[in-house]
Amino acid sequence: MGAHHSHQPRHSSAEDPSGLHRLALLIIAPLAVLTLVAMVWLWPDPLPTPDGQSRLPEVTGTVTGLERVACEEELPDEVNGCGTAYVALDDDSVQGVPRDGELEAPLPNGPGAPQLAEGDGVILISTETPDGITWAVVDHQRGSQLWMLALAFVVALVAFGRLRGVTALVGLGVTFLVLVLFVVPAILGGDPPLLIAIVGSAAVALTVLYLTHGFTPSTSVAVLGTLAALALTGLLSALAVATMHLTGFTDDLSAALGQTYAVNMEGLLLAGIVIGSLGVLDDVTVTQAATVAELSRANPEYRGRDLYRAGSRVGRSHIASVVNTIVLAYAGSSLPLLILIVANNDGLGNVLTDQIVAQEIVRSLVATIGLVAAVPVTTALAALSARGRW
Questions:
Q1: What is the Cα–Cα distance from 347 to 388, expressed in whole angstroms?
Q2: DSSP for 102-167?
Q3: Are 150 and 162 in contact (CB under 8 A)?
Q4: Residues 191 and 320 in one domain
Q5: Does residue 248 come out as left (phi exceeding 0), alpha (psi in the -120 to 50 range) or beta?
Q6: Helix H or strand E segment including 224
Q7: Residue 116: CB atoms within 10 Å
Q8: Do residues 104 and 172 both lie within one domain?
Q9: Is residue 303 exposed (0-12), middle (13-18) or buried (19+ Cβ within 10 Å)?
Q10: Angstrom distance (rounded) from CA 172 to CA 174
Q11: pLDDT recorded at residue 155
């Protein structure tokens, strides 16, 4: 009983015995101000309206009927066969549409063509020809399905996470706003993509971590570990991209961005590595800081070095699983290109050194090195913050 009371004051009254939280705030506060100033300085001007139309105007409608006929010749990529789709447009005031709002379009075929059934919501485009306006079905509508999935996501997160789930949703909203309102327009405006990514990632880390996990010593430790690992990731990615002569031009989409919008594709590659790493870094740093805090409360006799060793064991297990997650995530996102490269190349060496594959390898390895560095830094800071002695 006496031993229990002898440990209680140290546990309850000394939340930050080392003063490390105050020191962390003295470091974080100037970084937050610097990030805010950088965002204001780099804030993009409104993007000019592009000359002409970059894509054909789209309209939406519902398939009311399908009339199929025998094909005169065999189609190489048959999806719906031959015939006509009757579509009732959602907006019957569109130019070139009969008064009843229903139009005819040939059944779509070819790679990626939507497979149609009566009642499907579809998207159409129109083309003016010497014979008049022709219509083509190019895709399905999927807005309702996306909203239902988003609602299920929100309900599941709030039901399990409760208040923490709500703050996580708010943090997700902040991340989305930073990306859409700052990062993407600034890159399109011609600012250096790597600088924009670092500033945007710092803004997300400084805002979302405190918003989601509260203003606590553990959160401040996680913020410091995240920012330090982000800086290392940025440096390593710049070094790797430069030494391997990666250009960022790997497909038609990247070529279009570089040529049409004059985006620095090498910088965009670096920006993607930094932003992609942030999503895993904050998970690792928050987990390490929280783990050490819980170990400190559960084991009052543990010194700083004991907390560090125990927390590092958890961190090693976490890193071992996260590394596989990173590799599989990047491989999954580029799987079609990977299959095409393997099919067209002889030998594993040619496949691995191809720029598309090498780019994904660099993403995975650089992100992993940043994660590995984040674990000991965050764990050591958390141990010192919890005990104030080593």
A1: 56
A2: EEEEEPP-STTPPPP-TT-EEEEEEEEETTEEEEEEEEE--HHHHHHHHHHHHHHHHHHHTHHHHH
A3: no
A4: yes
A5: left
A6: helix 217-243
A7: 20
A8: no
A9: middle
A10: 5
A11: 95
What is the dihedral sign for C-alpha 3, 4, 6, 10?
positive
For the chain, what is the mean pLDDT? 82
Q: How is residue 62 written in tokens?
A: 């519902």
What residues contact residue 107 under an 8 Å CB cut-off, 6+ apart? 66, 68, 79, 80, 81, 82, 83, 84, 85, 116, 137
CATH number at residue 90: 2.40.50
Mean pLDDT of 22-51: 84
CA distance 376 to 18: 18
State residue 189's pLDDT score. Answer: 83
Measured CA to CA, the distance from residue 292 to residue 296 in angstroms comes to 6
Query: 35-39, 81-85, 86-90, 93-97: lowest mean pLDDT where?
Result: 93-97
Domain that holds residue 92: 58-141
d(CA 287, CA 219): 10
